[in-house]
Write a structure and sequence with these properties.
The protein has 7 helices and no strands. It is mainly α. It has one domain. Helix 1 runs antiparallel to helix 3 and helix 3 runs antiparallel to helix 4. The longest helix has 35 residues.
Length: 233
């Protein structure tokens, strides 16, 4: 009669409450540090955009003949800088997922709002009545920019994983800029004589051109910025 070989059975090591608390605290610290690091990439764009939103940007004017059609009539340096933010959000979403990208956007805007308020408070004694933009402009600029960045993160997450590598970044960027355009121009220029509808179309066209250029950068960085945590794309 064969005697079966003894099989050693190991009991799972139970984690004590203190060890569980330490592990959770460590995971939280790592996540918080990553959030702070990623927010530090987006935050300078937001702060720079806030304080340069009234400076005209005429880098594209040379490509338009008629003075009324030149983008410098509506495009500011701050608006141009803010238009770069969705590209960065797409990279964060690719690497860490849309939820993490949304947290980065939220944290960055919170800190940027505090910094902008502190800056305006510091400059308040020397500011004149015409130095501050209108409430409608501030609401349009801030609201449209935030929604554009959240849209970039969300649409990228929805469309990622396709065999066509360009699909997710293209639709994410396009959704971000279309949302920004259809919120910013009507709110900022409603009731004025400005040809804001023409400017809206012009902005979407320029954004589509910029997205095409961005796809080349995205393609080059696909390998270094591989998705983590099982994310596709």
């Amino acid at each position: 009669m064969d005697i079966p070989a003894a099989v050693e059975q190991r009991r799972p090591i139970k984690e004590t409450p203190l060890e569980r608390l330490g592990r959770a605290a460590g995971d939280f610290a790592v996540a918080l540090f990553r959030l702070a690091l990623l927010s530090a990439l987006l935050l300078p764009i937001l702060i720079f955009a806030f304080f340069s939103v009234d400076l005209p940007f005429r880098g594209f004017d040379q490509y338009f003949g008629a003075m009324r059609a030149k983008p410098g009539n509506w495009l500011s340096l701050g608006f141009f800088a803010m238009a770069l933010a969705p590209f960065l959000v797409i990279f964060v979403s690719r690497r860490f997922g849309g939820e993490e990208a949304a947290r980065v956007v939220t944290a960055s805007w919170t800190v940027a709002a505090i910094a902008a308020f502190a800056g305006v408070s510091y400059l308040a004694p020397v500011l004149e009545a015409g130095d501050m933009p209108s409430v409608a402009f501030v609401v349009a600029f801030v609201g449209s920019s935030m929604i554009a960045q959240f849209a970039a993160a969300g649409v990228y997450d929805i469309t990622r994983g396709s065999e066509r590598w360009w699909r997710a970044p293209f639709f994410a960027a396009l959704a971000a800029y279309v949302a920004q355009a259809f919120l910013y121009f009507p709110v900022a220029y409603w009731g004025s004589n400005a040809p804001w509808l023409n400017w809206l179309v012009q902005y979407v066209a320029l954004a589509a051109l910029g997205t095409s250029v961005f796809l080349g950068v995205y393609r080059a960085l696909m390998r270094p910025l591989k998705p983590r945590g099982g994310w596709g794309g």
